[in-house]
Every structure is written in C-alpha cells, then in structure tokens.
TrEMBL record:
It comes from the Eukaryota. GO terms for biological process: proteasome assembly. This is Proteasome assembly chaperone 3. Gene3D superfamilies: 3.30.230.90. It comes from Choiromyces venosus 120613-1.
Length: 145
C-alpha cells in the first residue's frame, strides 16, 4: 500500500497585480506538494500552458551562476520548457517558453534543492513583449515567489 503524502491544505497561494504595457496583469503562484503553478493573466485569459521540470541532479550548475555575474539574468541552461497547450502561434510559443524557463530559473536560484515541477499558465493580450514589459512581468511574479 502506498503511503499518503501529508501536505498543507489549502495550498499556499500568493497573488499580485500590476499594469504592464498599459494592461492590468495578475500573477498567482500556488505551491502544491508536487508542483509550483504560476499563472499570468491579462483580461482574465489563460491561453497557453507550459511546464519546466526542475532537476535537482543538476543543482551543482545553479551554484555557478549568480545575479552579479554578467550572465546572471540569463535562464539556467539545464532547464527545458515544454509547451502543454496553446502553442499554435510560433511567436507566442517562443515568448511563453522564454517566460517559463526564466521563472523556473528564478525558482531554482531561490532554492537550489527545489525539485517540484514549475507549471506556467499564460494569457497575455499581445504576442510580443518589449524589454521593459518583460522585466515588469518578472518583477510581478517575483513578488509572489
């Protein structure tokens, strides 16, 4: 018989809202026992879903990169995002995968022993995001992590 994994109920949830490129944007992070679910929504939509496994076997790679390094803001190279739903438009899929791997990197860098999968639900109004908008988006989710 399998053992039951005790986890806190309800799952820990954090929310933040900000205006990014003139659009009200909501971020929610839910910490489940086996996954960290992040949603980023504009106009209440969630059109794409991605996941990024956090491989704790590669935690040695995390220690070699810090925010002070020249490449400190780049995503960790061992993380691979996968599109689950909503990848019909290539430009949206590329942006979504970039956001997913960047957020998974942020989670990994905050806790090098984190092994839960990061699942991202994304619903951006625009297909493209300028540099400032991307940074604001990362800061918004960072408030919830």
């Amino acid at each position: 018989m399998e053992s039951v994994l005790k986890s806190p109920f309800p799952a820990s949830t954090k929310r933040a809202t900000s205006v990014i490129d003139g659009i009200s944007t909501e971020s929610t992070v839910v910490y489940f026992a086996d996954k960290i679910m992040i949603t980023i929504s504009q106009d209440g939509r969630l059109a794409q879903w991605f996941h990024v496994p956090l491989d704790t076997n590669n935690s040695a790679l995390i220690g070699t990169q810090s925010a002070e390094d020249e490449n400190g803001l780049l995503p960790l190279t061992h993380l691979t995002p996968t599109t689950l739903l909503g990848g019909a438009v290539q430009s949206r899929e590329s942006l979504g995968q970039l956001i997913a791997v960047q957020l998974a990197s942020a989670v990994s860098m905050r806790n090098k022993d984190e092994g839960r999968m990061v699942v991202l639900g994304l619903g951006l109004r625009k297909e493209e995001l300028e540099r400032d908008g991307f940074i604001q988006l990362m800061e918004l989710v960072g408030k919830c992590l």
